[in-house]
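Query structure, 444 C-alpha coordinates:
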Protein backbone atom coordinates (compact mmCIF):
# COMPACT_ATOMS: atom_id res chain seq x y z
CA UNK A 1 0.00 0.00 0.00
CA UNK A 2 1.20 3.50 -0.82
CA UNK A 3 2.91 5.35 2.03
CA UNK A 4 1.05 8.44 0.83
CA UNK A 5 -2.34 6.82 1.39
CA UNK A 6 -4.42 9.70 2.81
CA UNK A 7 -6.33 7.30 5.05
CA UNK A 8 -3.16 6.65 7.04
CA UNK A 9 -2.50 10.33 7.60
CA UNK A 10 -6.13 11.00 8.51
CA UNK A 11 -6.24 8.13 10.99
CA UNK A 12 -2.95 9.12 12.63
CA UNK A 13 -4.25 12.66 13.06
CA UNK A 14 -7.72 11.60 14.28
CA UNK A 15 -6.74 9.23 17.07
CA UNK A 16 -6.10 10.82 20.47
CA UNK A 17 -3.05 8.71 21.11
CA UNK A 18 -2.21 10.16 24.54
CA UNK A 19 -5.66 9.32 25.89
CA UNK A 20 -5.54 5.81 24.42
CA UNK A 21 -2.07 5.23 25.89
CA UNK A 22 -3.24 6.41 29.29
CA UNK A 23 -6.25 4.09 29.09
CA UNK A 24 -3.96 1.13 28.32
CA UNK A 25 -1.56 2.12 31.10
CA UNK A 26 -4.35 2.17 33.69
CA UNK A 27 -5.89 -1.02 32.30
CA UNK A 28 -2.66 -2.98 32.75
CA UNK A 29 -1.60 -1.08 35.88
CA UNK A 30 1.80 0.03 34.63
CA UNK A 31 3.63 3.33 34.98
CA UNK A 32 5.00 3.99 31.52
CA UNK A 33 3.38 3.96 28.08
CA UNK A 34 5.22 4.98 24.92
CA UNK A 35 4.00 4.65 21.35
CA UNK A 36 6.25 2.83 18.91
CA UNK A 37 6.09 2.35 15.15
CA UNK A 38 2.95 1.73 13.14
CA UNK A 39 2.03 -0.37 10.14
CA UNK A 40 -1.17 -0.99 8.20
CA UNK A 41 -3.09 -3.28 5.91
CA UNK A 42 -6.01 -2.73 3.58
CA UNK A 43 -8.51 -1.88 6.32
CA UNK A 44 -6.69 -1.24 9.60
CA UNK A 45 -3.79 0.67 11.09
CA UNK A 46 -1.73 -1.12 13.74
CA UNK A 47 0.43 0.71 16.27
CA UNK A 48 2.62 -0.80 18.98
CA UNK A 49 2.47 0.53 22.54
CA UNK A 50 5.41 -0.11 24.89
CA UNK A 51 4.28 -0.58 28.51
CA UNK A 52 7.13 -1.03 31.00
CA UNK A 53 8.35 -4.54 30.16
CA UNK A 54 5.72 -5.52 27.59
CA UNK A 55 4.31 -4.42 24.25
CA UNK A 56 0.67 -4.43 23.19
CA UNK A 57 -1.07 -3.62 19.92
CA UNK A 58 -3.68 -1.00 19.10
CA UNK A 59 -5.65 -1.75 15.96
CA UNK A 60 -7.56 1.14 14.45
CA UNK A 61 -9.96 0.84 11.49
CA UNK A 62 -9.20 3.00 8.47
CA UNK A 63 -12.09 5.09 7.12
CA UNK A 64 -14.44 4.34 9.99
CA UNK A 65 -17.99 4.91 8.73
CA UNK A 66 -19.79 4.37 12.01
CA UNK A 67 -22.57 2.40 10.34
CA UNK A 68 -24.35 -0.46 12.09
CA UNK A 69 -22.55 -2.84 9.72
CA UNK A 70 -19.14 -1.43 10.68
CA UNK A 71 -19.98 -1.68 14.38
CA UNK A 72 -21.24 -5.25 14.01
CA UNK A 73 -18.17 -6.22 12.00
CA UNK A 74 -15.89 -5.23 14.88
CA UNK A 75 -18.16 -6.83 17.50
CA UNK A 76 -18.21 -10.09 15.54
CA UNK A 77 -14.44 -10.11 15.14
CA UNK A 78 -13.93 -9.63 18.87
CA UNK A 79 -16.54 -12.27 19.68
CA UNK A 80 -14.87 -14.74 17.32
CA UNK A 81 -11.47 -14.20 18.91
CA UNK A 82 -12.91 -14.56 22.41
CA UNK A 83 -14.72 -17.74 21.37
CA UNK A 84 -11.51 -19.17 19.91
CA UNK A 85 -9.68 -18.36 23.13
CA UNK A 86 -12.33 -20.08 25.25
CA UNK A 87 -13.11 -23.12 23.12
CA UNK A 88 -9.93 -24.05 21.23
CA UNK A 89 -6.17 -24.27 21.59
CA UNK A 90 -5.59 -22.15 18.48
CA UNK A 91 -2.97 -19.48 19.27
CA UNK A 92 -4.44 -16.00 18.82
CA UNK A 93 -3.81 -12.58 20.38
CA UNK A 94 -5.65 -11.86 23.62
CA UNK A 95 -8.25 -9.07 23.48
CA UNK A 96 -7.54 -6.60 26.29
CA UNK A 97 -10.24 -4.05 25.53
CA UNK A 98 -12.18 -2.68 22.61
CA UNK A 99 -14.68 0.04 21.80
CA UNK A 100 -16.91 0.73 18.81
CA UNK A 101 -17.46 4.32 19.93
CA UNK A 102 -15.60 7.41 18.69
CA UNK A 103 -15.99 9.21 22.02
CA UNK A 104 -12.83 10.21 23.92
CA UNK A 105 -10.38 8.42 21.59
CA UNK A 106 -11.77 9.80 18.33
CA UNK A 107 -12.15 6.37 16.73
CA UNK A 108 -13.05 2.78 17.61
CA UNK A 109 -10.13 0.58 18.61
CA UNK A 110 -9.05 -2.86 19.72
CA UNK A 111 -6.25 -3.30 22.25
CA UNK A 112 -4.70 -6.76 22.15
CA UNK A 113 -1.58 -8.62 23.16
CA UNK A 114 1.34 -8.60 20.74
CA UNK A 115 2.06 -11.94 19.10
CA UNK A 116 5.70 -12.88 18.60
CA UNK A 117 7.10 -14.18 15.34
CA UNK A 118 7.22 -13.31 11.67
CA UNK A 119 4.60 -13.86 8.95
CA UNK A 120 4.82 -17.32 7.42
CA UNK A 121 4.68 -15.62 4.01
CA UNK A 122 8.11 -14.09 4.65
CA UNK A 123 9.86 -17.46 5.07
CA UNK A 124 7.68 -20.05 3.31
CA UNK A 125 9.34 -19.91 -0.10
CA UNK A 126 12.81 -20.39 1.41
CA UNK A 127 11.90 -23.44 3.48
CA UNK A 128 12.88 -27.00 2.64
CA UNK A 129 10.22 -29.69 2.26
CA UNK A 130 10.78 -31.08 5.77
CA UNK A 131 10.33 -27.68 7.38
CA UNK A 132 7.20 -26.95 5.36
CA UNK A 133 5.83 -30.32 6.48
CA UNK A 134 6.41 -29.30 10.10
CA UNK A 135 4.34 -26.15 9.55
CA UNK A 136 1.65 -27.97 7.58
CA UNK A 137 1.23 -30.46 10.42
CA UNK A 138 0.39 -27.55 12.73
CA UNK A 139 -1.92 -26.00 10.12
CA UNK A 140 -3.79 -29.31 9.82
CA UNK A 141 -4.39 -29.43 13.58
CA UNK A 142 -5.62 -25.83 13.58
CA UNK A 143 -8.05 -26.63 10.78
CA UNK A 144 -9.28 -29.71 12.63
CA UNK A 145 -9.83 -27.61 15.76
CA UNK A 146 -11.86 -25.15 13.68
CA UNK A 147 -13.83 -27.93 12.01
CA UNK A 148 -14.93 -29.22 15.41
CA UNK A 149 -16.67 -25.92 16.19
CA UNK A 150 -20.07 -26.63 14.62
CA UNK A 151 -23.13 -24.41 14.32
CA UNK A 152 -26.62 -24.91 12.92
CA UNK A 153 -26.65 -22.13 10.32
CA UNK A 154 -24.44 -19.86 8.27
CA UNK A 155 -23.47 -16.46 9.52
CA UNK A 156 -21.24 -14.43 11.79
CA UNK A 157 -20.53 -15.16 15.44
CA UNK A 158 -21.66 -12.73 18.13
CA UNK A 159 -21.86 -12.79 21.90
CA UNK A 160 -25.54 -12.36 22.76
CA UNK A 161 -27.31 -11.84 26.04
CA UNK A 162 -27.65 -15.58 26.61
CA UNK A 163 -24.42 -16.75 25.02
CA UNK A 164 -22.91 -17.28 21.59
CA UNK A 165 -25.19 -16.76 18.62
CA UNK A 166 -24.99 -16.78 14.83
CA UNK A 167 -26.44 -13.85 12.90
CA UNK A 168 -26.70 -13.28 9.18
CA UNK A 169 -23.52 -12.23 7.37
CA UNK A 170 -25.53 -9.31 6.01
CA UNK A 171 -25.07 -7.74 9.46
CA UNK A 172 -21.32 -7.37 8.87
CA UNK A 173 -21.13 -6.91 5.08
CA UNK A 174 -23.17 -4.72 2.76
CA UNK A 175 -22.73 -7.16 -0.14
CA UNK A 176 -23.60 -10.36 1.73
CA UNK A 177 -26.76 -12.39 1.38
CA UNK A 178 -29.04 -12.92 4.34
CA UNK A 179 -27.40 -16.17 5.40
CA UNK A 180 -29.65 -16.86 8.39
CA UNK A 181 -31.80 -19.32 6.43
CA UNK A 182 -28.98 -21.48 5.04
CA UNK A 183 -27.92 -24.70 6.74
CA UNK A 184 -25.90 -26.19 3.88
CA UNK A 185 -23.51 -25.05 1.18
CA UNK A 186 -25.59 -26.01 -1.85
CA UNK A 187 -28.59 -23.89 -0.89
CA UNK A 188 -26.29 -20.95 -0.14
CA UNK A 189 -24.40 -21.09 -3.44
CA UNK A 190 -27.58 -21.56 -5.48
CA UNK A 191 -28.98 -18.43 -3.82
CA UNK A 192 -25.67 -16.64 -4.39
CA UNK A 193 -25.71 -17.61 -8.07
CA UNK A 194 -29.34 -16.52 -8.45
CA UNK A 195 -28.50 -13.12 -6.98
CA UNK A 196 -25.55 -12.86 -9.36
CA UNK A 197 -27.73 -13.71 -12.36
CA UNK A 198 -30.21 -11.04 -11.30
CA UNK A 199 -27.42 -8.46 -11.08
CA UNK A 200 -26.31 -9.33 -14.61
CA UNK A 201 -29.87 -8.90 -15.87
CA UNK A 202 -30.49 -5.61 -14.09
CA UNK A 203 -27.11 -3.86 -14.22
CA UNK A 204 -25.59 -2.30 -17.35
CA UNK A 205 -28.87 -2.24 -19.25
CA UNK A 206 -28.32 -2.97 -22.93
CA UNK A 207 -24.68 -3.98 -22.50
CA UNK A 208 -23.31 -5.59 -25.65
CA UNK A 209 -22.92 -9.39 -25.50
CA UNK A 210 -24.42 -9.58 -22.00
CA UNK A 211 -25.84 -12.98 -22.92
CA UNK A 212 -22.36 -14.54 -22.78
CA UNK A 213 -21.76 -13.21 -19.27
CA UNK A 214 -25.16 -14.55 -18.25
CA UNK A 215 -24.53 -17.94 -19.86
CA UNK A 216 -21.27 -18.34 -17.95
CA UNK A 217 -22.96 -17.51 -14.65
CA UNK A 218 -25.80 -19.88 -15.55
CA UNK A 219 -23.25 -22.63 -16.17
CA UNK A 220 -21.68 -21.99 -12.77
CA UNK A 221 -25.04 -22.28 -11.04
CA UNK A 222 -25.75 -25.52 -12.91
CA UNK A 223 -22.59 -27.22 -11.59
CA UNK A 224 -23.09 -26.25 -7.93
CA UNK A 225 -24.90 -29.55 -7.11
CA UNK A 226 -21.84 -31.44 -8.33
CA UNK A 227 -19.54 -29.45 -6.03
CA UNK A 228 -21.57 -29.16 -2.80
CA UNK A 229 -23.38 -32.03 -1.10
CA UNK A 230 -25.94 -31.05 1.59
CA UNK A 231 -25.21 -34.36 3.31
CA UNK A 232 -21.75 -33.04 4.18
CA UNK A 233 -23.33 -30.35 6.37
CA UNK A 234 -25.77 -32.49 8.34
CA UNK A 235 -23.36 -32.48 11.30
CA UNK A 236 -23.25 -28.67 11.43
CA UNK A 237 -21.24 -25.84 9.92
CA UNK A 238 -17.63 -25.11 10.99
CA UNK A 239 -16.19 -21.70 11.75
CA UNK A 240 -14.11 -20.42 8.84
CA UNK A 241 -11.45 -17.69 9.33
CA UNK A 242 -11.97 -14.59 7.24
CA UNK A 243 -8.37 -14.40 6.01
CA UNK A 244 -6.45 -17.63 6.65
CA UNK A 245 -3.46 -16.66 4.52
CA UNK A 246 0.24 -17.06 5.19
CA UNK A 247 0.70 -13.36 6.00
CA UNK A 248 -1.67 -13.84 8.95
CA UNK A 249 0.12 -16.91 10.33
CA UNK A 250 3.05 -16.02 12.59
CA UNK A 251 5.93 -18.44 13.22
CA UNK A 252 8.99 -18.21 15.47
CA UNK A 253 12.58 -19.24 14.72
CA UNK A 254 11.69 -22.88 15.42
CA UNK A 255 8.82 -22.64 12.90
CA UNK A 256 6.28 -23.06 15.66
CA UNK A 257 3.03 -21.24 14.87
CA UNK A 258 2.67 -18.54 17.51
CA UNK A 259 -0.51 -16.83 16.34
CA UNK A 260 -3.28 -16.67 13.77
CA UNK A 261 -4.10 -13.04 13.06
CA UNK A 262 -7.00 -11.13 11.48
CA UNK A 263 -10.32 -12.76 12.34
CA UNK A 264 -12.31 -9.95 10.76
CA UNK A 265 -15.03 -11.28 8.46
CA UNK A 266 -14.93 -14.79 9.91
CA UNK A 267 -18.14 -16.78 9.60
CA UNK A 268 -19.57 -20.25 9.75
CA UNK A 269 -19.53 -21.98 6.37
CA UNK A 270 -20.32 -25.24 4.67
CA UNK A 271 -17.80 -28.06 4.74
CA UNK A 272 -17.35 -27.48 1.02
CA UNK A 273 -16.21 -23.90 1.56
CA UNK A 274 -14.19 -24.72 4.67
CA UNK A 275 -12.31 -27.68 3.16
CA UNK A 276 -10.23 -25.84 0.56
CA UNK A 277 -6.44 -26.00 0.65
CA UNK A 278 -4.68 -23.02 2.29
CA UNK A 279 -3.83 -20.64 -0.52
CA UNK A 280 -0.10 -20.84 0.13
CA UNK A 281 -0.08 -24.41 -1.25
CA UNK A 282 -2.35 -23.59 -4.22
CA UNK A 283 -1.14 -22.52 -7.67
CA UNK A 284 -1.96 -18.92 -8.52
CA UNK A 285 -4.27 -18.86 -11.56
CA UNK A 286 -1.88 -16.48 -13.33
CA UNK A 287 1.09 -18.85 -13.08
CA UNK A 288 2.42 -20.63 -16.14
CA UNK A 289 2.21 -24.43 -16.09
CA UNK A 290 5.99 -24.73 -15.85
CA UNK A 291 6.32 -22.39 -12.86
CA UNK A 292 8.67 -24.17 -10.42
CA UNK A 293 6.29 -23.47 -7.54
CA UNK A 294 3.65 -25.67 -9.20
CA UNK A 295 5.74 -28.80 -8.59
CA UNK A 296 6.36 -27.73 -5.01
CA UNK A 297 2.63 -27.23 -4.44
CA UNK A 298 1.93 -30.73 -5.76
CA UNK A 299 4.28 -32.10 -3.11
CA UNK A 300 2.84 -29.87 -0.40
CA UNK A 301 -0.74 -30.86 -1.21
CA UNK A 302 0.22 -34.53 -1.06
CA UNK A 303 1.88 -33.88 2.30
CA UNK A 304 -1.17 -31.97 3.51
CA UNK A 305 -3.46 -34.85 2.48
CA UNK A 306 -1.29 -37.41 4.28
CA UNK A 307 -1.10 -35.31 7.44
CA UNK A 308 -4.83 -34.55 7.41
CA UNK A 309 -5.75 -38.23 7.05
CA UNK A 310 -3.43 -39.18 9.90
CA UNK A 311 -4.64 -36.42 12.22
CA UNK A 312 -8.34 -36.86 11.43
CA UNK A 313 -8.03 -40.62 11.83
CA UNK A 314 -6.39 -40.16 15.22
CA UNK A 315 -9.16 -37.85 16.44
CA UNK A 316 -11.93 -40.04 15.05
CA UNK A 317 -10.60 -43.61 14.69
CA UNK A 318 -13.99 -45.05 13.71
CA UNK A 319 -14.86 -42.36 11.16
CA UNK A 320 -14.55 -42.35 7.38
CA UNK A 321 -12.33 -39.23 7.17
CA UNK A 322 -14.95 -36.85 5.68
CA UNK A 323 -12.81 -33.73 6.06
CA UNK A 324 -9.79 -35.37 4.43
CA UNK A 325 -11.92 -36.48 1.50
CA UNK A 326 -13.40 -32.99 1.16
CA UNK A 327 -9.95 -31.37 1.07
CA UNK A 328 -8.66 -33.85 -1.51
CA UNK A 329 -11.54 -33.00 -3.85
CA UNK A 330 -11.48 -29.24 -3.37
CA UNK A 331 -10.13 -28.02 -6.73
CA UNK A 332 -13.52 -27.45 -8.36
CA UNK A 333 -14.90 -25.66 -5.30
CA UNK A 334 -11.80 -23.47 -5.08
CA UNK A 335 -12.17 -22.35 -8.70
CA UNK A 336 -15.94 -21.94 -8.35
CA UNK A 337 -15.69 -19.66 -5.31
CA UNK A 338 -12.77 -17.67 -6.67
CA UNK A 339 -14.63 -16.98 -9.91
CA UNK A 340 -17.78 -15.86 -8.10
CA UNK A 341 -16.22 -13.83 -5.29
CA UNK A 342 -13.26 -12.09 -6.93
CA UNK A 343 -14.20 -10.33 -10.19
CA UNK A 344 -10.61 -9.23 -10.83
CA UNK A 345 -9.59 -12.90 -11.00
CA UNK A 346 -12.53 -14.03 -13.11
CA UNK A 347 -10.87 -13.99 -16.54
CA UNK A 348 -8.06 -16.21 -15.26
CA UNK A 349 -10.13 -18.53 -13.06
CA UNK A 350 -13.27 -19.17 -15.08
CA UNK A 351 -11.58 -21.05 -17.98
CA UNK A 352 -9.87 -23.27 -15.40
CA UNK A 353 -13.24 -24.05 -13.82
CA UNK A 354 -14.81 -24.89 -17.18
CA UNK A 355 -11.89 -27.15 -18.06
CA UNK A 356 -12.07 -28.81 -14.62
CA UNK A 357 -15.76 -29.62 -15.07
CA UNK A 358 -15.60 -30.84 -18.65
CA UNK A 359 -12.04 -32.15 -18.69
CA UNK A 360 -11.11 -30.06 -21.72
CA UNK A 361 -8.54 -27.33 -22.24
CA UNK A 362 -10.69 -24.48 -23.53
CA UNK A 363 -8.28 -23.11 -26.11
CA UNK A 364 -8.67 -22.78 -29.86
CA UNK A 365 -7.16 -25.72 -31.72
CA UNK A 366 -5.66 -25.39 -35.18
CA UNK A 367 -7.17 -27.95 -37.56
CA UNK A 368 -5.81 -27.98 -41.14
CA UNK A 369 -4.86 -24.34 -40.91
CA UNK A 370 -8.27 -23.21 -39.64
CA UNK A 371 -9.30 -22.29 -36.13
CA UNK A 372 -11.70 -24.79 -34.63
CA UNK A 373 -14.39 -23.32 -32.41
CA UNK A 374 -13.83 -24.09 -28.73
CA UNK A 375 -16.09 -26.45 -26.86
CA UNK A 376 -17.17 -23.67 -24.49
CA UNK A 377 -18.18 -21.44 -27.43
CA UNK A 378 -20.30 -24.28 -28.83
CA UNK A 379 -21.79 -24.83 -25.38
CA UNK A 380 -22.82 -21.18 -24.93
CA UNK A 381 -24.06 -20.97 -28.52
CA UNK A 382 -26.28 -24.02 -27.99
CA UNK A 383 -27.71 -22.56 -24.79
CA UNK A 384 -28.44 -19.17 -26.33
CA UNK A 385 -29.51 -20.12 -29.84
CA UNK A 386 -31.50 -23.31 -29.31
CA UNK A 387 -31.50 -24.05 -25.58
CA UNK A 388 -33.01 -22.79 -22.35
CA UNK A 389 -31.42 -19.33 -22.62
CA UNK A 390 -32.74 -18.63 -26.11
CA UNK A 391 -35.56 -16.33 -25.02
CA UNK A 392 -33.40 -14.37 -22.58
CA UNK A 393 -30.59 -14.05 -25.12
CA UNK A 394 -32.97 -12.47 -27.62
CA UNK A 395 -34.25 -10.14 -24.92
CA UNK A 396 -30.71 -8.94 -24.17
CA UNK A 397 -30.14 -8.34 -27.88
CA UNK A 398 -33.34 -6.30 -28.13
CA UNK A 399 -32.36 -4.30 -25.05
CA UNK A 400 -29.00 -3.45 -26.65
CA UNK A 401 -30.76 -2.09 -29.74
CA UNK A 402 -33.26 -0.19 -27.59
CA UNK A 403 -30.49 1.42 -25.54
CA UNK A 404 -28.72 2.55 -28.69
CA UNK A 405 -31.90 4.05 -30.13
CA UNK A 406 -32.85 5.88 -26.93
CA UNK A 407 -29.30 7.17 -26.56
CA UNK A 408 -29.40 8.57 -30.10
CA UNK A 409 -32.45 10.62 -29.15
CA UNK A 410 -31.56 11.70 -25.60
CA UNK A 411 -27.75 11.73 -25.73
CA UNK A 412 -25.05 10.05 -23.65
CA UNK A 413 -25.30 12.51 -20.76
CA UNK A 414 -28.85 11.36 -20.02
CA UNK A 415 -28.47 7.72 -21.09
CA UNK A 416 -25.07 7.33 -19.49
CA UNK A 417 -22.64 4.42 -19.73
CA UNK A 418 -23.49 1.64 -17.29
CA UNK A 419 -27.05 2.73 -16.58
CA UNK A 420 -29.01 -0.03 -14.85
CA UNK A 421 -32.47 -1.31 -15.67
CA UNK A 422 -34.26 0.80 -13.06
CA UNK A 423 -32.36 3.92 -14.12
CA UNK A 424 -33.16 3.32 -17.79
CA UNK A 425 -36.86 2.90 -17.03
CA UNK A 426 -36.81 6.15 -15.06
CA UNK A 427 -35.13 8.01 -17.93
CA UNK A 428 -37.65 6.64 -20.43
CA UNK A 429 -40.62 7.60 -18.25
CA UNK A 430 -39.33 11.16 -17.91
CA UNK A 431 -38.83 11.62 -21.66
CA UNK A 432 -41.75 9.71 -23.17
CA UNK A 433 -42.71 12.73 -25.26
CA UNK A 434 -39.33 12.65 -27.03
CA UNK A 435 -39.40 8.87 -27.51
CA UNK A 436 -42.87 8.50 -29.03
CA UNK A 437 -41.48 7.04 -32.25
CA UNK A 438 -39.69 4.14 -30.53
CA UNK A 439 -40.96 0.72 -29.50
CA UNK A 440 -40.38 0.80 -25.73
CA UNK A 441 -41.77 -2.63 -24.97
CA UNK A 442 -38.34 -4.08 -24.09
CA UNK A 443 -37.69 -1.72 -21.18
CA UNK A 444 -40.59 -3.09 -19.17
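Result returned for the query:
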Amino acid sequence: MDHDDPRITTTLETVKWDILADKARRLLQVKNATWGHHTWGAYNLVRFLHLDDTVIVARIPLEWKGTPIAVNRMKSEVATMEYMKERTNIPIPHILEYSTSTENIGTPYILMSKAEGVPLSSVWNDMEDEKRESVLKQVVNILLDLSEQRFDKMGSLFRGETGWEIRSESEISEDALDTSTFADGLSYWIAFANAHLKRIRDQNFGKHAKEYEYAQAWFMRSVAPQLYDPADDIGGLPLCPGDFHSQNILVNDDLHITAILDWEGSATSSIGTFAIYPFFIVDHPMWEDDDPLCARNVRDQATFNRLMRAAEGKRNPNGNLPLSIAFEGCQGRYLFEQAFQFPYMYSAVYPLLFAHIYGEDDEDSDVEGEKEETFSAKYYWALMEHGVLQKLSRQFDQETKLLQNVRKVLGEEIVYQGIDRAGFKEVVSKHLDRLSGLDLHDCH
